[in-house]
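Lab notebook, entry 159. We have the chain sequence and a SMILES string for zinc ion, and the next step in the workflow is to get a structural model of the bound complex before anyone spends time on docking refinements. Request logged below.

Task: model protein plus zinc ion, output structure tokens.
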Amino acid sequence: MNTGITKKLKLSTEREKALKSFQKARKLQDANDLGYVKCISCGAIIHVSEADGGHFIPRQFKATELEPSNVNAQCRKCNRFEAGNQIGYRKGLIEKYGEAEEKRLENLHDAARGSEEAYNSLPEEDKALIYSKRTAQYYHSEYLKWNKVCNQLAERERI
Ligand SMILES: [Zn+2]
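Result returned:
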């Protein structure tokens, strides 16, 4: 319904909201029926309430910021005190998604940092991730989408 009032969305606020709910949704998606997750980096089994949604490629890179394989449940020790435990993360990522997906994320990262070789190796739909202009409206709809996932999964947790 058009109320005639268009709320002006602020890009940085909407991006933050989208990334936050995405991170939360990703760790909830990793949880088993009892609410436990396995740290992607060290394999520790912890309750989802004590886990972070940890990034493989840092979140400042927009090309991978909302890629599901790039954000996984991680223990706080690895995420906060061991700088993401990147060696373990890479290993865990390959185990979980396969080498091709790990390579894809690396290529997106390198392409975002200006590597022409990495860019050229990307399929067309991934090339769009490098240059697409992300608007406040885009982030707002991502926020709504991932927030809905969070609510559905949080409900399951209570059963
Ligand atoms: Zn860990």
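Notes for the group: The beta strands are 36-38, 45-47, 51-55, 71-75. Worth checking against the assay data. The longest strand covers residues 51-55.
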